[in-house]
Amino acid sequence: MKLQLIRNATLKLDYAGRTLLIDPYLAPKHSLPSFTGRSPNPMVELPVDIEKILDGVELVIVSHLHEDHFDSVAKERLRKDMPIFCQPGDEGEIRGAGFTDVTPLEDHATWNGITLTRQEGSHGLGPVVDLMGSVMGVSIEAQDEPSIYWAGDTVLYPPVADTIRQTGPDIIITHSCGARWDGDLILMDDKETIDVCEASAPEAIVIATHMEALDHATVTRQDLRQAVDARGVSKKKLLIPADGDVLVLGRA
């Protein structure tokens, strides 16, 4: 498989002979409002042109409808007949944007030999969850490919730990910027990301994404690397790609 981190949570995945795009956030730098007053969002430009990002894409996965996961630029630039999988409850709004092939991922679905399984997530804990709304993660599997657990916009809480333990993925993708909303943690921070590393199988690889793009983030890539080094986690265990980086990975 080949995985490219575009920016924030946006991933382009070449997997089992197909090309998937996850959580497309394609807005120009500083074109959207700030969350905290620190900076307009997104804080960085896309690393490659939108045409190149969309080239060859056959399927889109949308974890939830926050602007930084499915924005107006993506809605405008994606083909309206593009197959889209989303969490249950979001399909109406996506269809309302003109998309004609929208499937809520209730549990499992198979698309061209690729099995997608919806996993639970929590965009924070406590009252902030009502503000953030529902989210999902997705497990991705296909014959002769590494199994992936993309945790999505979630903190580390028991259902995430259970998914790691029960599915034993080869690759775990975390959102690790430590974003906060009115002081409440709504995404994994450096400590929780390291806990994921230590909770997963020794041969599994963790990939930290959703970093340095939004102004409510509190953990940078350098912060995470320093924390990892302090805990003695192997650099081979946790990968922290820059925007635009391409990773080629096999089965554990």
General description of the model:
With 252 residues, the protein is of the alpha/beta class. It has a single domain (2-242), classed as Metallo-beta-lactamase, Chain A, CATH 3.60.15.10. Helix content is 21%, strand content 27%. The chain contains 7 helices and 16 strands. The protein has helices spanning 50-54, 72-77, 91-96, 128-132, 158-167, 190-199, 221-231; strands spanning 2-7, 10-15, 18-22, 59-62, 84-86, 102-104, 108-111, 114-120, 136-141, 148-152, 171-175, 180-181, 184-185, 205-209, 238-239, 246-248. The strands form 3 sheets. It has a 7-stranded mixed sheet. Strand 12 (180-181) and strand 13 (184-185) form a beta hairpin. It is globular, with a radius of gyration of 17 Å. It starts with a strand and ends with a strand. The relative contact order is 0.16. The mean pLDDT is 97.
Short description:
With 252 residues, the chain is of the alpha/beta class.
